[in-house]
Amino acid sequence: MKYRLVFTKQYEKRARRFLKLHPELEPAYLKTLKLLQANPFHPSLRLHRLTGRLSGLHSISITLSYRITMEFLVVDEQITPVNIGDHDTVY
Predict the structure, then answer these.
(1) Which of 17, 33, 50, 83 is close enough to 69 for a disulfide, judged by CB 3.0 to 4.6 Å?
(2) pTM of the entire structure?
(3) Domain with residues 4-90, CATH architecture
């Protein structure tokens, strides 16, 4: 089953800014997106549900230090990235 990634203008702007600051992470970022689309439950993504003020969102890992928060709608097989950055930035 292939999931559909839906990028908002706000997320695209955040991702461009993130990649401008961390160009060395672009290959890992692109690999993460491909894996997310193919199998969001893959163990290397470390998918988990967030709580507190980010309740309703999920998080995956690009690396041990960098994350993507996202809306994860299993019913529609649709994933909408919300934010990207280091642990303190996205949480």
Answers:
(1) 83
(2) 0.89
(3) 2-Layer Sandwich (3.30)
